[in-house]
Write a structure and sequence with these properties.
By secondary structure, the protein is α+β, with helices and mostly antiparallel strands. The chain folds into 2 domains: about 150 residues, no CATH class; about 130 residues, Chemotaxis protein chec (3-Layer(aba) Sandwich). It is built from 12 helices and 10 strands. The strands form 2 sheets. Strands 1, 2, 4, 5, 6, 7, 9 and 10 form an 8-stranded antiparallel sheet that branches. A two-stranded antiparallel ribbon has the order 3-8. Helix 1 packs across helix 7, helix 10 packs across helix 12 and helix 11 crosses helix 12. The protein is globular and about 50 Å long.
Length: about 300
């Protein structure tokens, strides 16, 4: 998650523009090698085994390496070796920005020091993000709230950030969230979790972004905004909320009911309860997530 929050760090401080960041994210995406690809290249896993682990991730909130170990495809030593072979994502992103002349290597060194200090990470943490470090980054990210985030809210947001990485791609940056009282929709779907922790989540994006989002999610290209594209957005939202409800049941003994996803037909959404708008910048466009907190 360091690369995603690093992009927001640069944007929020005016170090880069959105266009400069998107260009660097596009370059980073083409250079980043996923652990599954590295495992195939090293001869540790077959393509079918990698595909099976990816499918398992749609049912379990676990990293690729964790699932590969539990399935007997990799050992802990092999996972450690493969993680060390990956360049830390936020350093890779910064290097592309240096190459583009956005800032100098000396400026980048100072930026790294400031970012590490704020995020409470060190050189030994890049391939081993700890729960405490990630929770701290999320809490800082939502510092605008008038109260501290509940543990359930942190878990929900952390899972969303992970699921975007797993199922859509890690070449994105979340923009600092803001309170939301009304929102003009483009194409929007929503779903509510019902129970002792209840939140309604909305996803909204332009049609061209919907097409690319669905193409990435399904793993095959779409070329027009049709019912398959619309269904893919509903399915992603249902997948995310479904995994979260399983986590809550397994880890907290909290049972949540999942309402069916719905397409929002009102052009202007209005909210009376505590609601936050979270923009996500991908190279293919802007996605907006809206969190309406019903009870925590």
């Amino acid at each position: 998650m360091y690369a995603q929050f690093f992009g927001n760090y640069l944007l929020s401080r005016g170090i880069v523009t959105k266009d400069q960041l998107i260009r660097a994210m596009q370059e980073k995406s083409s250079a980043h090698i996923k652990i599954g690809t590295l495992a195939i290249h090293a001869g540790y896993m077959t393509a079918n085994e990698v595909d099976r682990v990816i499918i398992l991730q749609t049912h379990q909130d676990k990293r690729f390496g964790e699932l590969a170990i539990s399935e007997g495809y990799l050992t802990e030593q092999q996972v450690t070796e493969l993680l060390r072979a990956q360049t830390p994502d936020f350093l890779l992103l910064g290097q592309f920005l240096v190459d583009d002349g956005i800032f100098t290597i000396d400026e980048f060194q100072n930026i790294i020091i400031d970012y590490q200090s704020e995020s409470e990470i060190d050189d030994f943490s890049y391939s081993d993000e700890t729960i405490d470090q990630i929770d701290h980054m999320i809490e800082n990210f939502f510092v605008l709230t008038e109260r501290a985030l509940s543990s359930n809210e942190v878990s929900f947001i952390k899972l969303l950030i992970n699921n975007l990485i797993r199922f859509i791609g890690d070449d994105y940056t979340p923009v600092s969230p803001s309170p939301c009282r009304e929102y003009p929709t483009t194409f929007c779907v929503s779903q509510q979790l019902i129970g002792s922790f209840s939140v309604r989540t909305y996803i909204d994006m332009p049609e061209d972004a919907c097409i690319e989002f669905a193409s990435r999610y399904v793993g095959e290209p779409f070329y027009e905004f049709d019912e398959y594209v619309r269904a893919s957005l509903n399915d992603f939202l249902n997948l995310h909320n479904g995994i979260f409800s399983v986590n809550m049941s397994n880890e907290c003994s909290i049972e949540l009911e999942l309402a069916p996803p719905v397409t929002e037909t009102d052009e202007l959404l209005t909210f009376e309860k505590e609601t936050y708008l979270l923009p996500i910048v991908y190279p293919f466009g802007m996605i907006h997530f809206i969190f309406e907190v019903i009870n925590i």
